[in-house]
Design a protein that fits this description.
This protein is mainly alpha-helical. It is 81% helix and 0% strand. The radius of gyration is 18 Å and the shape is elongated. The mean pLDDT is 87.
Length: 149
């Protein structure tokens, strides 16, 4: 298999994987916010594991967005996968992540006028919004580019 074939196969896989990862990430947030957490005073190991899992997953997803998921690939394959179109798509994905995060921050600010908002929960929500929006947008743009549209 040539480097071009490998890059094409991996780009297709990445385009399908990013939206799926975003959905999995959002689903994990729903589980996190419906369960018990550290701020409820119950210092159980499962709480630390839950928060640790969220932190690790957030860092991994963010790292995947920054690198395009190609860091462990051969230099030639990375160069093929990170063409101008992909770099533009990634830049737009980060734009969307930023805009959605700012929108979430404004909504949390408004919410805080009526009810107390825990700082840890606010950070968690804003981080999740930004990462999920960027993953979804990057995946959508990559899929569109691969379809030729």
């Amino acid at each position: 298999m040539t480097d071009n074939d490998t890059a094409d196969r991996l780009m297709d896989k990445r385009a399908r994987m990013m939206p799926a990862l975003a959905m999995m990430f959002v689903a994990q947030q729903a589980v996190y916010f419906t369960g018990s957490r550290l701020d409820e005073g119950k210092l159980r190991l499962v709480n630390y594991v839950s928060i640790g899992g969220w932190l690790v997953l957030s860092v991994v997803l963010l790292f995947g967005l920054v690198t395009g998921g190609t860091l462990l690939r051969d230099r030639r394959v990375r160069a093929l996968m990170n063409d101008e179109n992909t770099l533009a798509n990634r830049a737009q994905a980060f734009q969307w992540g930023f805009l959605f995060t700012m929108g979430g921050a404004i909504l949390l600010y408004i919410l805080s006028l009526f009810t107390p908002v825990d700082a840890r929960a606010a950070i968690h929500v804003l981080t999740a919004i930004g990462i999920a929006a960027a993953l979804l947008r990057f995946g959508m743009l990559e899929r569109r580019a691969l379809k030729g549209g």
